[in-house]
Amino acid sequence: MAGGEGEAARPLLEKPHVYFDGCPGCAMDRRKAENPGIPYGLFFHTWIINLVTCLPISSLFPFLYFMIRDLGIAKRVEDIGFYAGFVGASYMLGRALTSIIWGILADRIGRKPIIVITILSSLVFNTLFGLSMHYWMAIATRFLLGFLNGSVGTIRAYAVEVCRPEHHAIGLSLVNTSWAIALIIGPAIGGYLAQPTEKFPNLFSIDSLFGRFPYFLPCLFISIICFVVLITSIWLPETLHTHNVQKKEDPHPESLFACLSDSEEFVEQDSTSTKNNRLLTNWPLMSSIVLFCITCFDDMAYSEIFSLWAESDKKYGGLSFSSEDVGNVLVVTGASILLYQTFIYPHIVKVLGLINSSRVATILSMVLLFTYPPMVNLSRPWLSIVVNIASMLKSCSVATVVTCSFILQNNSVPQDQRATANGIATTLMSLFKAVAPAGAGIVFSWAQKHQHASIFSGDQMVFLLLDIVVLFEFIWTFKPFLDVPKQSSSS
Predict the structure, then answer these.
(1) How many CB atoms are closer than 10 A to CB 72?
(2) Distance (Å, rounded) from C-alpha 288 to C-alpha 295?
(3) Which locations, inside or outside the cell, does it occupy (predicted)?
């Protein structure tokens, strides 16, 4: 344990900074005290780690339709959407089952081990997914990929702990931005590198490994990136405090101030369960989490349906797009989200406020969904232009509601409860995202079998159901459903 001489002379109530030798959390606190600037290196490391753990999610959509077709599980073309939905759901189901457990482990053994386990599991199971020869193998590897992903809440806590309080907003925004970048890079990798023997016959022969496993190349490419980031994680500093154990083993007289400070921490820890119970009865928090979950359900269902619909044949109400075409749309959409959140969203919220911004976004989203079925009647290049514009506006609408709900959640709880609140939101969100692709796949498969119904064609019914989900989002932005915290009421 180490403490400066000047600290001993401070009055008892000032709680001087005391750093314990061998405690990684204290080492990080000392580093922040000695370097008050923005930790660009650690921020970039955090950003790249979150990016690589998001890539396996975003890279799947451009080629999932064709992968299910080639695995031979679907007896008819109309059944492809049914089976594709469960592949998307398996990842989110696995993550929903373990999100809280990973959060508890991160608070017990440290942030770094959980981050390393997540990257390693992404490397292994993303590679195995690309080598899937059977449908059950694709389901199992995606489930384990989500089951062993403990970085969702951990990386957000880490981004806050590596910087001083005045830089917390920057750290968290960089974590969110890495997901926007993943929405650009992931679909590009999946769209351009899937089925390489068809797209690059001069480089990849049909008899090669990539001819036998046409969806292995994009997974391998992402796994190589994961391996590089995994190696760099050796130098990732830990931020969890472990000095409570050391204090019991070696209580020195000069640690009086630290002991007094730590005793207060123990009192706070004793009341943690009480605080957690209060979170579940905190309606401003829970109502904003419900809004967040409904929006994530909408986004996940839309993402699943859009790729399946765009790649299905026009006789089934689709657009007959290739995986590369869908990849192009998703790349443009991801780039638009990044630009929107960086330059446009802050001004919209400043003018309209959080609630009105969410309401306008949901109304725009409902209008856009009605325009999708008629797009099948367009021809290129107008079809590509219209699809790209609609996809950008739809995704930016979702980003608006999600970001507003994040702010409402943070404003609903004190700072010392935000990590736990984030864990609750992540678990519930993952459950909603697990149900969404499975449900969307079932509905899409049913719709393709009823494309020529007398009242609503199959594709019209699909987007009508999505509209109903968005309508629930819109209704939830009003009282008594959404209870806005006082500090957000003027926003």
Answers:
(1) 10
(2) 11
(3) Membrane
Buried b (16+ CB within 10 A) or exposed e, 349-377: beebbbbebbbbbbebbbebbeebbebbe
Sign of CA dihedral 50, 53, 55, 60: negative
Backbone angles phi, psi at 113, to 5 degrees: -60, -40
pLDDT digits (tens, 9 = 90+) for 426-435: 889 889 988 9
Say what angle helices 283-311 and 272-280 make with each other, to 10 degrees. 60
> Is the separation of the CB atoms in 163 and 170 below 8 Å?
yes
Q: Which residue's structure tokens are 């070696």?
A: 250
Instruction: Give, to the nearest 10 degrees, the angle between helix 283-311 and helix 418-449.
Output: 30
Cα distance between residue 93 and residue 10, in whole Å: 53
Tens digits of per-residue pLDDT, 203-232? 999 999 999 999 999 999 999 999 999 999
Query: Residues 175, 48: contact at Cβ < 8 Å?
Result: no
CB 194 within 8 A of CB 63: yes
CB 118 within 8 A of CB 163: no
d(CA 331, CA 183): 7
Confidence of residue 256 (pLDDT cuts 50, 70, 90): very low
- Pair 116, 62: CB distance under 8 Å: no
pLDDT digits (tens, 9 = 90+) for 58-103: 899 899 999 999 999 998 888 998 999 999 899 999 998 888 788 7
Structure tokens at 184: 């650009």
- CA 478-484-488 angle, 5° bins: 125
CB 369 within 8 A of CB 467: yes
Instruction: Please measure the distance between the N-terminal and C-terminal CA atoms of the chain and give it in whole angstroms.
Output: 46
Contacts of 326 (CB under 8 A, 6+ apart): 61, 62, 187, 191, 306, 307, 310, 311
Asked whether the beta carbons of 241 and 26 are under 8 A apart, the reply is yes
| Cα 68-74-76 angle, rounded to 5 deg | 125
Q: What is the DSSP string of 108-152?
A: HH-HHHHHHHHHHHHHHHHHHHHT--SHHHHHHHHHHHHHT--HH
DSSP codes, 47-80:
HHHHHHHHHHHHTSHHHHHHHHHHHT--SSGGGH
Are residues 289 and 409 in contact, defined by beta-carbon separation less than 8 angstroms? yes
